[in-house]
Structures are given as C-alpha cells and as structure tokens.
Specification:
This protein is mainly alpha-helical and 86 residues long. 59% of the residues lie in helices and 0% in strands.
Amino acid sequence: MNEILEKYSDTILKNIDIDNMKKIMLFLQNNNCDYIEDIVEDYFDIFVIDYNLFVNKFNNLNQKYNNQFLTLAKEDMNLFEEPFYD
C-alpha cells in the first residue's frame, strides 16, 4: 500500500474524500468495471474529482467511445487521464 501512496503528492492524498471515493468505486463497479484495484493503484487521483462531476465526465467519455469506455480503458488505462482534460 505504501508504494501506491508514494506515487501521489500530498495534495492529492489530502484532497481525497473517502465517501466520494467509495461512491466512484461503486459507480465503476455498477458499470461492470472489473479492474478497480488497478485504477486505485495507477489513477488514484481520479477519486479527487467530485462524484457528480466524475459521473458526468464518465458518461461523456462513454458516449465518445460508443459505450465502450471501460472496455477500452482496460486495454489502455491512459484513457483515465481524459477526465482531467477540459
């Protein structure tokens, strides 16, 4: 676990709202995401995004990728950087 936390700045870690993180994880799980542990390990900073904003961004990305965002992101997890682009 320490190796995971060492990847992220103190600012990211201080800004994590556990309830928000749980909601995002549940949302991903409900959308049949079977690699949440990988997301936590490599894209932990997405959990800083407010849940409602995350859902909105996810839905937009899912539409952009023909409802295949999570399938494609499983192969190329760099797609999880897109919620940070505006």
